[in-house]
Amino acid sequence: PENAIMASRGLVLRATSLLLCLLMTPGLAWRGLALVGRAARPRTSRLAASARRTWAIAEDGRWVSSAAATARGANDVGWSGLSREARASSDASSVTDGDGARLAAAARETAAAAASPAAEAARARPVGDFTPGFHDQEEVGVHEVSDAAEARRVAALLCARDELIHACDTEVADLDLGRSPLGQGRVLCITVYSGPDLDVGSGPGKALFVDTTEPGVLEAFKPWLERESALKVWHNYGFDRHVLYNHGVDVVGFGGDTMHMARLWDASRLAGYSLAALTEELVGRAKVSMKEIFGEPKLRKDGTPGKIIELPPLDSLQASPLTRPDWVQYAVYDAKGTWLLYRELEARLSRMEWLRTRSLFDFYTEYWRPFGELLTDMERAGVMVDVRSKLPLAQTRAQADRDAAELTFRKWAARYTEAAWYMNVGSGTQVQTLLFGGATRRNSAEVLPLRRTFKLERAAFEELHVARLRATGHAHGAEAGAAAREAAARAAAATAAAAKM
DNA sequence: CCATGCCTATCGCTTGCTAA
DNA sequence: TTAGCAAGCGATAGGCATGG
């Protein structure tokens, strides 16, 4: 249709998980039901809780968690100051080898030692049961690909290893997380882990860090990414496929999506389906978030660090020699995590029966995997919406329907509590008070308040009041307006009186 | 001493989301 | 479908400096 324009790609993207839910077989639905009882298990593991902790440096130079630091009154020894120092010494020791994480850790230790001689002893056994964040993580061996010639060489080697399953991930800059990755986002790097056997010249079992900000590198990898017979597994394939498509790379050779596989394995996970949660739980591999590794406290006007942690632009984390080693480790860690998770989920699904003689992994391979590929095609195409003629009509109709439903609700609610006529029907808190005020929570002794007071804009009040008078047939036209103003004045006087008390 | 302005932190409520 | 969570936002409290 000539007037139709493309819209709502985000809508399609969001429909992905819903569609996957709809695909559930009866067997799966039953499984989901049975798992509800698991809700009682601890939501957060000890590891996850520790990873979320922030760290400070005490006067004696030792690392302490923020809670402990506050208790000692040591939280004023700003850790951002130390972090800068650490980076300065990391710079001084010339970051040239790929051994970034260890180097940065050493730099931090140097800085800590400089802060106090007592730190030397403390360094061997840090306060608490773990060392700070990121450097707890296993270090992944890396083969860096940073120029076109090397990219061509490595991509050719990959093309010769179609028997392997290659786990891939990307890091992306210039992305608005609230919007679809189609048409926005710049791929900074691709990371690949193909198992312990692949050796591209620097030894077996290395992960690849492919720097796509260098000219010609992505082009050199394009043939492998577009190679149907090279099976690549991802965590949330759609996202990576779309951002790569922005660069003219049409990824095919879909080997699997660990997010979808996890959904098939357990469709009712309270912890969700993030790579971090799944790898921690299924392969016992903790992950520290980007914000915790690279976040810096926002400086207040007076220069002292504030409480808000900000993430620098991601392209600068990759480009700066101070952060690049940690960045490479971070990126590669996810690719290896995806590979490990794939293997684990393959094993778990293979142990689950489907059609008596077959397994849920067969089901995944035969149905969900091709459907996963199809879904990304659908997302790419989007949904045609006739914005000029159909959409305004649909909107008008939807709004009228909603207004009518709201009026019905107000009439009903006001029969029980007069003030409910004026409530914000979109507020969960207000609806909760109306329906459950005075009730006791199932899991605790807490009793929901029987009565709560909510603020209301004068204009909104007047509008609702007019609607109320109209609905109850007490007044019409100008009369209603006058009544509303009167009521508003009464309400304002009451509020003022209450404020004085 | 008080008023004022600027700033940050925090609170309560709404909203959107369940991935990245 | 649902509960629970967290981001975002406006309102507000409180710290601090300045100025009369």
Automatic annotation (TrEMBL):
Q: Quote the Pfam families the UniProt record gives.
A: DNA_pol_A_exo1
Coiled coil regions, renumbered to chain: none
Question: Among the record's GO biological process terms, what is one?
Answer: DNA-templated DNA replication
Q: Give any GO molecular function from the UniProt entry.
A: nucleic acid binding
| Superkingdom, natural source | Eukaryota
Known PANTHER family for this protein?
A: DNA POLYMERASE I (PTHR10133), DNA POLYMERASE NU (PTHR10133:SF27)
Q: What is this protein called?
A: 3'-5' exonuclease domain-containing protein
Q: Which organism is it from?
A: Emiliania huxleyi
